[in-house]
Amino acid sequence: MARIEEQLAGLATLSPARLRAEWRRLNRGQPLTEGLTSSQLARSIAWRLQEKMQGGLSPARVRELDRLAGQLDSDGDLEMAADRSLKPGSQLVRHWHGKAYTVTVIDQGFEFEGQHHSSLTHIARQITGAAWSGPRFFGLTRKVAS
Q1: What pLDDT is recorded for position 63?
Q2: CA-based nearest residue to 117, from 81, 92, 142
Q3: How many angstroms separate the CA atoms of 59 and 137, rounded?
Q4: Which domain, by its residues, includes 133?
Q5: Which of 64, 19, 65 minimizes the C-alpha distance to 46?
Q6: Which pLDDT value is given to residue 143?
Q7: Residue 8 domain-assigned (yes or no)
Q8: Interacting residues of 7 by C-beta distance below 8 A, sequence separation 6+
């Protein structure tokens, strides 16, 4: 079997018919979704190849993604689970008035623009100039049913 990097690079040279055949080979028994572009097929194949080599998502992560997909389908909106813990090294990105802001989770709080903060709310207020809940601003809280 060729190295994964070579396999991934080779996807760009495959015809649409060959991409469909490769997709079917990798996803035995699963129907091929009609209307996928060559680019989408290549990305799906790349994901599957890497998944086979390095392992896939955990069952819990798959359930969470299924839940979110179903919610998006029915509501057109997403409600993030409240019990998610933020692990050091995670990054929170929020676009505000045309600019992307990135906050890195560290052991004792958050790092934003080179400074340590103990609260996301302080960072949200610094970005917006208004009284915002930090977890809400960064999309970490559940929506309240109205």
Answers
A1: 85
A2: 92
A3: 29
A4: 91-137
A5: 19
A6: 55
A7: yes
A8: 1, 49
Q: What is the pLDDT of residue 130?
A: 93
How would you class 123 by CB atoms within 10 Å of its CB: exposed for 0-12, middle for 13-18, buried for 19 or more? buried
User: DSSP string spanning 13-75?
Assistant: G--HHHHHHHHHHHTTTPPPPTT--HHHHHHHHHHHHHHHHH----HHHHHHHHHHHHHHHHH
Q: What pLDDT band is residue 146 in, cutting at 50, 70 and 90?
A: very low
31 lies in a domain? yes
Kindly tell me if the per-residue pLDDT of 56 is higher than 80.
yes
pLDDT score recorded for residue 102: 94
84 found inside a domain: no
Q: What is the DSSP string of 91-137?
A: EEEEEETTEEEEEEEETTEEEETTEEES-HHHHHHHHHSS---HHHH
- Cβ atoms < 10 Å from Cβ of 38: 16
Q: Are 103 and 134 in contact (CB under 8 A)?
A: no
